[in-house]
Structure formats: C-alpha cells, structure tokens
Amino acid sequence: MNPARPAPLLGKLPLLLTLLGVVLAVGQFLHDRGLWTDEAFLALNILDRSIPELMRPLNDDQVAPFLFLVLEKAFSELLPGTDAGFRIVPLLSYLVGSFAFLRITRSVFHDSGARIFAVSLFVFNGNLIYYASEAKQYMGDVAVAMVITLLVLRYISHGRGTHALGAVAVISIWFSSITPIVVVAALASILSSRYRSNTVMGYSLRPFLFWACIWCTNFALYYIVAVHDHPAQDPLRSFWLSAGGLLPNDPFSPTFYTALYGRAYMVFHRLLPFGIIGAYVLVILTALGIFSWLRTGQRALLVLLVMPALLHLSLAILHVYPFDTRLLLYVIPAFALICAEGFRMVHHLLLGVQHPSWKFAPLTLVLFAVAFLHSGYPMDRQEVKLCLDFIEANAGMHDKVFVDPGAGPIFRYYDKQRGYDPVRYVDLERERTDPDRYLRDIGDTHGPFWFLITDLRVVEARSIIAHWDSLGNKRSMEYHVSGAHAYRYSLP
C-alpha cells in the first residue's frame, strides 16, 4: 500500500518555516539591543581603522576574517551612528544560510516529515536567531558551511558546479575562519563519492586541481598575513584553556575524557538548546541517523556532515582552534539533518510506511517552537545603551557619571557614536577592584554622581556598591536592565 501524500500546505511547510525563521531573525535585528563587550571591542576596531589598517592585528585580542571586517566597515559607514550597520552582515548571512539549508533538506530527504523536522530544528534554534544580529563573524560561518555543503551535494548528484564550488571556497577563506575545516570535509566527501560511484569517476579532475591550487595559494597567503605569529595567539589560548574551549591533549588522563563529555554536553544542551530531555532525545536521534545512513551506504553524505565537527574537535585537542558554542554554530544544520534522519528511521521502525512521518512532524515543530519561546525572545545581553539613555534622561546638570571597567568598552563605543559630555563622564581605569581607589578616583566630588556597571565585573562592582552604602552614602536612584546597572549616589 502506498503511503498517503502530504497535504499541499504541509508540503510547503518547510518553506513557510524558513520564512518564519527569517521573520524571527529580522525581529531580533529590529529589537535593536545594545552592543555587548565583545561586539564593542570589534566595532571600535572597525570604526578607528581604515580598510588597509584592518589587515593588521586588531586591538583588545580581537580576531576576525578580513573580508568580514571590510563588509562591516562598509555597512557601518552606510548607516553611521547606528548599531544596525554592524548587524546587517550577520543578518544577510542568516538569510543565505537558511535558504541554502532549505535547499539541502530537499536534496537529502524525499520524506516530507524529515524535512519538516530538520527545518524546525534549524528555525527554532535560539543560538542561530540571536547570532543573526550579533556584530561578530559567527553567522558568516553558517552561511559558508551551508553554501559549500549545497554545492558539494549538487556536484555529487549531477556532476556540475565545480567552478562555483571552487570560487566560493576561495572567497570564503577571507570571510570565515572555519572555511578550511569545511573545505577538507567537502573534498573528503567528493573523493568518497568518486570511490563508490563509477558514474562520477568519469568526471575530469582538472577543474579540481585548478581550484585546489588557487585555494591552497590563497590559504597560504591568508595564513601568512592573518594567522602566523598573531600577537593575540597566547592571550586567546590562555583564555580558551581556562574556558574549556581547548581540551586536554593527553588521552591517558581522566581529565581528557571529562572534557570530552563536557564538550558533548555543550553540543547537545547549549548548541541545541531544547532542554535536558531534548538533549537526550537528540543524542539518540543523532546516533540513529548516523547508523541509518551507514546502513544505506550514504557514506559521502556522512563524511560531509560529521567530519567538520570531528576535525574541529581535533583542532581543539591540538590547541589550534577552540571547540565552543559560538564557534560551532556552523555544525547546527548538520546535526539537524542527522537528527531528522534519526526521526525518519524511528518513525519507520515503529509505525511503518502506512503512517507517513509528515503526519507527526508538526508535533515536533510545536515542541521546538515552545522550547524556543520559553528561552525568551527577543534576546538581550548587556544593555549599557539603555542605562546610558536612562542616565541622560535623569541626570542633573552637575551629575558626574563613573563608568566601571566592565562597562568601559561599550561606553567608549557609544561615546564615539553619540559624543557624550567628557566633563560629565569618567571612564575609570581598567581592572580597579579596590573600593578605596574608586573613591580616590572620585576625588573631591560632592553631590550626586552615577555609577555604571555590567555583569562582566558584577562581583567587584557590587562590592564597591556595598562599600559606598556602608559609608552612609545615599542611593537616590537605580536602574537595572539585562546585564547592566546604573546607581545614583549623593555624596555629602
């Protein structure tokens, strides 16, 4: 008996879901949250430098691909004085990545239910929606991975698109840091398909050799210019070692396996943020999806989807590139596809073809949507911008404003954009944790003043607040938003 065909609306559901994802990403963009510390550091580099100067190592241990920086510079000048100018490139990257992913699901799955499951897992991933308006390069990684994946699948299926794939791979070196990982996986996938398919074996290797030479030349140039002896290597390595992004490289140590478990937990609980029960379900579906494709001989597809994560993990063990949430956004679509295949397999085993999976896929859509909304939408980070607006609206003519070091980079960014009164605002020196030194910075100040802090140094800053309170100083006003706080005091 042939399975029932999906209703026309359900057949269009993956496209409708993709459009919903675009609406959610644009909504997050229009929410216009303030830049947080890491964004502000990068934005200051972009504002302070010409395009040629962006080739040099950036200040404050910032690292970003040159082409991404150039595009950010162009849009920030197109929309001067706005945060939106720094967020257009990530938003456009999301649009490219989401529609490429939709095309990939059509190429990989004939089963409508599996397509609905995969697209739902992509669309309702809060990390992708948030980073679609983060003034950093991570959403560009997703776009590059999806476009290359789509072109590889097109080549494997039809033997076309060699030049398009080569050109995208070459350009992407300058736009996304994960390009080498994705390109190596793409090449391995193509070679695997050539080895297993006599039809594809007939295609000429000359175009591949041509683009391989160009790509290797560009990568060598990029490495010499942007990676070799970079001054931020040691500080970033120290940071990522302490943060767990770089794993212990001794396989005989228990900490090695503890770290592996921690990274696996991070992938299935934070990178795929659907709760602890969802994490266990997705682990099972991932295992089943891999098993299903191995059983049906889809090894080239598995290499294309699984190899990037394994290569990335290997680089983290070798202390070359961290294995952490925002640096792994580009593997979310691969996990979505593998889990969708696991979902298809489970459905087929339990219910058979007499009960088409598209009848049950909308239920998973609802579950993913509920988890997404429960996590909060739209999302905020460190709303120093709102605190500054509040201070400007409520400060008296003679009020001073002292900016804690944790809020300093964000304040300097908005000061450059808006031009705050240099007499009123005092950007305190970084890393001052002694309350008495803060009081000496205030000096002979009398009457009202403001203290602006963020959660980046919340322990130190609140100890200072407690110290001032203990001295009997009057706290006349305070304002609290996501990740940022402003206090108004009146000194005798």
Question: Your description of this structure?
Answer:
Helix 20 links the parallel strand 1 and strand 2. The chain starts with 7 loop residues before the first helix and ends with a strand. It folds into two domains: 354 residues, no CATH class; 108 residues. The protein contains 22 helices and five strands. The mean pLDDT is 90. The chain has a five-stranded mixed sheet with strand order 2-1-3-5-4, with helices on both faces. With 492 residues, the protein is an alpha/beta fold.
Summarize the entry for a quick read:
By secondary structure, the chain is α/β, with parallel strands linked by helices. It has 22 helices and 5 strands.
Tally the helices. Answer: 22
Query: Rg to the nearest angstrom?
Result: 25 Å
Please bin the fraction of helical residues. 55-70%
Tell me the overall shape. Answer: globular
Task: Count the domains.
Answer: 2
| H-E order | HHHHHHHHHHHHHHHHHHHEHEHEHEE
- What is the tally of beta strands? 5
Distance between the termini: 87 Å
Q: In which order are the strands of the major sheet placed?
A: 2-1-3-5-4
Mean pLDDT, as a whole number?
90
Determine the structural class based on helices, strands and strand pairing: alpha/beta
What can be said about the biggest beta sheet? 5 strands, mixed
The percentage of residues in β strands lies in 5-15%
Low-confidence stretches: none
